[in-house]
Specification:
Elements lengths: L9 H13 L4 H8 L3 H14 L2 E4 L8 E4 L1 H7 L11 H20 L4 E4 H11 L6 E5 L5 E4 L3 E4 L1 H4 L8 H7 L5 E5 L6 H13 L5 E6 L1 H14 L5 E5 L4
Helix pairs in contact: 1-4, 2-3, 2-5, 9-10
């Protein structure tokens, strides 16, 4: 019996596929993704949870529940190389914001494909080379030490879709033709570590640029790191609530 008698329609499979590609989603993010009401998004996710295609977890009180694809859901979605996403209390808020940012970017740039870090990791592993990651150094066996973004905005030439890009800071980068790395930064990293990452992004030529989405206090720390690494032309910061 597939999904406890729920018909695996293309629309339902698409929701599961989108969930698996990002790792975890919320009803709020799905409502943006599908341009639907929050109530409708909750019903769709609830039906997929009842069918056993998605699993719902809510590790943070007062914050949205997170939905992840089960192994059954992954099979129905037809995805290879991606296992179920693990949700913890420590990482839940980051997953919630990443899903919302991804959905907003999809709506604003319909000619681009938004991918998650898990999908990028799989693709780089299969390709055997960095596709949209910054090199931070070399490991003990000579392997590159990579810093992967939370999200990747793949352009038309990579995503195979065409509608017409939007404007703003992201729009200027996507016009380049290369992917854009998107970092959802919710907490302030150590200044030295943050400057190292910004410098690595400044030197990375596999991406058109980097967009940091962050709350104001984190944005101020990012501004200092960008100044320190002379990465002004490669990195822009967008306030989380303004997105």
């Amino acid at each position: 019996m597939v999904g406890r008698d729920l018909t695996p329609s293309p629309e339902r499979a698409a929701i599961v596929r989108w969930t698996a590609r990002l790792g975890a989603v919320t009803a709020d993010a799905l409502a943006i993704h599908e341009d639907a009401s929050l109530a409708a998004a909750r019903r769709r996710l609830g039906a997929l949870e009842t069918a056993g295609w998605l699993v719902r977890t809510r590790p943070l009180a007062g914050r949205p529940a997170l939905y992840t694809a089960t192994r059954t859901g992954l099979r129905i979605a037809g995805l290879c190389g991606l296992g179920p996403c693990r949700v913890s209390a420590a990482g839940a808020q980051h997953l919630i914001e990443c899903a919302r940012v991804a959905a907003v970017l999809e709506r604003r740039y319909p000619d681009h494909l938004v991918a998650g870090e898990r999908e990028l990791r799989r693709d780089e592993r299969e390709r055997g080379a960095p596709l949209a990651s910054a090199r931070l150094g070399t490991g003990p066996r000579g392997e590159p030490l990579l810093h992967r973004p939370d999200l990747v905005l793949w352009p038309e030439v990579c995503a195979g879709e065409a509608h017409g890009p939007g404007g703003g800071a992201v729009g200027r980068a996507v016009a380049d033709g290369r992917p854009v790395a998107v970092e959802v930064e919710l907490t302030v990293k150590a200044p030295r570590r943050l400057a190292e990452i910004c410098l690595a992004w400044a030197r990375c030529r596999s991406v058109a640029g980097v967009v940091y989405v962050a709350p104001p206090e984190v944005g101020r720390a990012l501004a200092r790191a960008i100044e320190r690494s002379a990465a002004h032309g490669r990195i822009v910061v967008v306030e989380l609530d303004a997105l």
